[in-house]
Automatic annotation (TrEMBL):
Transmembrane segments: none annotated. Pfam families: GrpE. Homodimer. It comes from the Bacteria. One of its GO terms (molecular function) is protein-folding chaperone binding. GO terms for cellular component: cytosol. It comes from Phytopseudomonas dryadis. This is Protein GrpE. The lineage of its organism: Bacteria, Pseudomonadati, Pseudomonadota, Gammaproteobacteria, Pseudomonadales. One of its GO terms (biological process) is protein folding. InterPro entries: GrpE, GrpE_CC, GrpE_head. NCBIfam families: PRK14139.1, PRK14140.1, PRK14150.1, PRK14151.1. The keyword Hydrolase does not apply.
Length: 189
């Protein structure tokens, strides 16, 4: 009996030892699974964010393709507009012999410009405006006392914007301050 009494206390201790080992293993396994779950959730969130970024970039690319698909075609048509404008500048509105031709050119130019405007192609005609290197290309500088320095005096060729993006810069002459005359001999003496 004494042996049985000695064994009874050992049985609960043995059961406790058996229970503790699987419990610790179970807790460690749960912790490992929770870490794997957190890692999987993090990867899932990252993949969803990447997918959303790819979708957004693709939408932006499609939008840009729609907005600027006409860029090359518009660039090829601008010399036609320039030629019509030059023809009108060089022809006299008072000459009866070419009056009908001039009216036809004016109507053609107006129709052409209206069509370009409909496709968000706008002209840059900066005569008298301050020089803007983002939209203007300075072809020459000229001294002037009539306007402030760095203003556009003359426009050789209009520039154009397509949907707000520069298609062709305006070619201009820019004013500069008059150079001071060297002192005369009388002033030096």
């Amino acid at each position: 009996m004494a042996d049985e009494q000695n064994q009874e206390p050992q049985i609960p201790e043995a059961e406790a030892a058996l229970d503790a080992t699987p419990g610790d293993e179970l807790a460690a396994r749960v912790q490992a699974l929770e870490e794997q779950l957190a890692t999987a959730q993090d990867q899932s969130l990252r993949m969803a964010a990447d997918l959303q970024n790819v979708r957004r970039r693709a939408e932006q690319d499609v939008e840009k393709a729609h907005k600027f698909a006409l860029e090359k075609f518009a660039n090829d048509l601008l010399p036609v507009v320039d030629s019509l404008e030059r023809g009108l500048e060089l022809s006299s509105p008072d000459d009866e012999a070419i009056k009908a031709v001039r009216e036809g050119m004016e109507l053609t130019l107006k129709l052409f410009l209206d069509t370009l405007k409909r496709y968000q192609l706008e002209a840059i005609d900066p005569h008298g405006a301050p020089f803007n290197p983002e939209h203007h290309q300075a072809m020459a500088m000229q001294e002037s006392t009539n306007v402030e320095p760095n203003s556009v005096l003359k426009v050789f060729q209009k520039g154009y914007l397509l949907n707000g993006r520069l298609l062709r810069p305006a070619m201009v002459v820019v004013s500069k301050a008059p150079a001071e005359a060297p002192p005369s001999i009388d002033e030096q003496a």
